[in-house]
Each structure stands twice: as structure tokens, then as C-alpha cells.
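As a warm-up, study this chain.
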Amino acid sequence: MNKIVQEITKKIQKRSKETRIAYKEKIKNAKNRCKTNRDCLGCSNIAHAIASMSDENKNLLETTDIPNIAIITAYNDMLSAHEPFKYFPDLIKKTLLENRATAQVAGGVPAMCDGITQGQTGMELSLYSRDTIALSTAIALSHNVYDGAIYLGVCDKIVPGQFMAAMSFGHLPSIFMPAGPMTTGIDNASKAKARQEYAKGKISKTDLLKIESASYHSSGTCTFYGTANSNQMVLEMMGLQLPNSSFVNAYTPLRKELTKQACIQLLKHNKPISEIIDEKSFVNAIVGLMATGGSTNQTIHLISMAKSAGIILNWDDFDELSNITPLICKLYPNGKADVNDFRKAGGLSVVIHQLLELGLLHEDAETIMGKGLNKYVVEPILENGILKYKDNVLETRDEKIISKIDYPFDKEGGLRVLEGNIGRSVIKTSALKNEHFDIKAPAIVFESQEELQKAFHEGKLEKDFIAVIRYQGPKANGMPELHGLMTPMGILQDKGFKVGIITDGRMSGASGKVPSAIHLIPEAIDGGVLSKIQNGDMIHLDIVNKKITLLVDNLKDRKSKNMDLHKNYTGLGRELFGVFRDNISDAEHGASIFKESK
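Now compare it with the structure written out below.
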């Protein structure tokens, strides 16, 4: 095993010692002495819980000790990724009943689509929705009539939120089930080009809509490697989904059989999730993130997810693991391939095998399949309608998508942490060209992405500059993704201008072409240096040496520019989330209202 990985893991364990003890004690106290949870309830409680069930299920629950499993679903038919979950509960109930168990939809959680809210006011609720999902899941499970849980979720905030609640109910055996991606539509490069053509006024909105609709065209997860698909990678690296199952297409026979098998595996393994997840699980997830060039949003989510298990992560852990993890995947936005191509190339089994070969993963980690991550080096297939696993899926089938470890796409992972007199930030490097790793240019300050877009359309940005977009952090307005910056900044970069971005906001998981120092802390609303930058200030974005520097002499004499942010506090439900704005942590602490276990 790689010594540096071992050292980082030990450092996390030492840092988390007290909070882990508190977490484990909390879970110990949550365990009932009863054989099933409902045995500890009164007859009236149980009668209410099973009133709507079939007589067959009632008889089983009333007279036997069989487990009753909670289904937590993020189904809605507005999100393509979650629409397939409409049919999962009936399939789950039928499969469990055939295997001497029952199930109920314990509750639904909100699931919003960042693709729909990009550039819209609703995006300001997106990050807050993660903690809301955790709260909603907790309410669903609070009835305490369940002996295990199945989580149906895919997209950006849904999986992290469900995971956080799952760890609060860590005494329950748990499993996550993906819905699977849609089939490949128009390629991502053509979609990005069309957006630029529209921004230049060369095609109409009608033409652009046709192209966008040819990309997002059916049920299933979007196929680019953004946050949703990074979530699925994380769950597999943590051993919480069936092996190599994330990217099997929705509405296929194989997807159906995997869903059934997940039910059986939950009953078979029957190990509380708190006994599966530990510091090694998170190290494996971060290594997977770096090796695949995954979403920067995970630097926020994994920290909050870890916190829910009493584990304390920070950005230095990500940076140090990135230093020693090779980038071995080329998926859009850092390549042309999508997740369907990735699966054809061998998928996560090939990635896991190669990382195990390098000693970068804790092979002895616990999983829902049992002890050992080598159980994930397989490929699910159907033979005569029966689910089987092909062992030893070790070699890439397409070296342009998954490289061999002897010649990776980059010797380091896809993310870095930058630090300097402006603060600390995260940057995605996997999609950057070498010439964009060092930029020294004057600042142009914007208070919103709309201001930058307006300046672009007015032709005021035809030059080298670093765009400073501030008051976009979690306390200021919920830290929306600033995906609207990508098209104009990408056009300027393609014209040969040296451009970059610095912001306390976020970027889409599909971003990365333009060098972007994001998640900056301290955020502007906290009086960080970001709030003191002025137009024309020289900034050095030195990604090679991991530096972000404001090159001015009079910084101590500067005062923060105060902003009236009240317009961010009302409209489209934002007035309901004041408690989040008032209590949320900064990005490096997970941008969460929840604290560590104590």
C-alpha cells in the first residue's frame, strides 16, 4: 500500500478521533435490543404503520420477525435521472417479499435539477437542498419501524443528502440504487459549440433548443461526467452500490436485474452502514475522484458526508491525494467520451483494479459485498436473463478513455487547492490545457454572472483579464453554480485571450475548460480579501505552484465593498431559508448547517 495514502488516512483518523468516538456512541445508543424495530413499538404504533399494506404483508409483519425495509425515494418525473424511480418501489417490494421481507416507501425527498435552474433564481436554493434532503430523510426514518433502508437517488445534492441522513441512522443496513444514465445523444462537444454559436448570435434560440434536446433526450441521468455521475463513482468507491452498476442504462433488462439483486444483497449482507463507512471509505472516494477527473462539487459534499459519520476532512486531504493519484480517465468535460463510453471501456472495475495495483486504495475496506474492494473488479452481465458477474475485468478496452497506469493522461489527479493572500480555493485542472496553468492579468470585478454576460455582449471583454465574481458564497446567496460564465469566458479563451475566474461561488460539475479558482474562502460577505479587490488590480493565478495572489501594495489599507444582499433573501422560496444563510459553514467545512458529532 502506498505509504503516503496510509499517512493521510492516519492523519484523518487522528484528527477525527473524538468525533468518531461520539458518533459510534450515538449509533450504539440508537440500536434497539428488540429483534426488529417494530417489536419495540406499541400495538397502536404498529397498526398505524401497516394500515395501508396488503393482508399478506400485514400477516408477515404481525406474526414473524422478518425485516421491514424503508424506501427513501427522490422520484419525480421532471428530473430525467429520477423519473425511472417511478417503477422501483413495486419491483423492490415484490423482490423483497419473494425473499421473506417487506418494504414501504417511507418518504420522498426533494430533488431539484441544476440543469434547469442554471442562471435562474432557483439555483440559489440548490446547495441548501442537500441539507434539506438530509432532514427529509431523517423525518421519513423517524417512525422507527424499519430494519434497513434503500436509497433511491442520483443527482447533485440528492445522494450526499441521503448519505448524511443514512449515517445518522447508521444502525440500519443500507444500500443505494442508481437509476442509470440515458443513452448517448448528440455529443457534448457539439452541444458546447452550439452554446457558443448562440452566444455569438449565429444561431437562434429555436436552433439551440433542438440541439440541447438532442443531448438531454430521454429518461436517465445526463451522460457527461458531472456531479451526478461523480456521485455514483463515489458510492461505488465506498462500496455502497453493487459493483460496476452505476452506468448501466435506465430501462434495460440488466438495470432491472441489478435493482432486484441489490434488494437481495441488502438482506444477505445485513451489516449496518456505520460498520461499513470509515476513514478508509472516504480516502478511497477521494482517490477515485482524482483518478477520474470528477466534479469539484465533491470537495464540498464529501466533507459534509464525512462529518455525518464523525470524520473530519479538509481540502489538504484532497490536494495531497491528488498529488499522488494519476489521472487515468478522459470523460467530458476533460475529454470527448461520456459515461456510456466509459462503461464500454470497462468502467469502474478497470479504474479500481489499476488503483489497487498502484496501492492507492484501501483494498481491505468494508463494502455491501463484504470485506475487500477487489470484489468490485467485476462486470455485471445477463446470460439467458440471469445476472452474472464477469471476474477479472482488468484491462481497458479503450485507452483514449481509460488509460493504463504506465502512461496516464496526467501524473496528478484532476483537482488542486490554491492558496495565497486572497484566500484558499479549489480548481479543476483535468480539463485545462498547459498554456492556461499560469495567468497574470488585471482584475475585472463583477457582483454577478449576469453583469459579466452583459459586458461580454457589449464587447467590453476583448482582452486579457481575470474575472472576479464575488458575493456568491453559501452565506451570501446559497452558493449557486455560475455556469453562465462558461460560454462567454470559453469564447474569449478560444480567441487567444488569457482569462481566468476567481469566485466564492461554485461551477457546474461539467465545467473546467477555463481556469477557475472557486469555492474561495473567506467568502466576500465575511470580509475576505475578495471583497477588497478593485478593477485593474493585478492577479497571479499560478496553478503550477498552487498560488493565488493579489499583486497590490496597499491591501492593508483597503476596506471591503459592502453589498446590499437583501434582494437575495426573498422570492421563489428564498425567504424560507434564512436559517440556512445564518448558520451555514464555509465551503471547506462543507457549506452545511450541520456540525460534527460531539
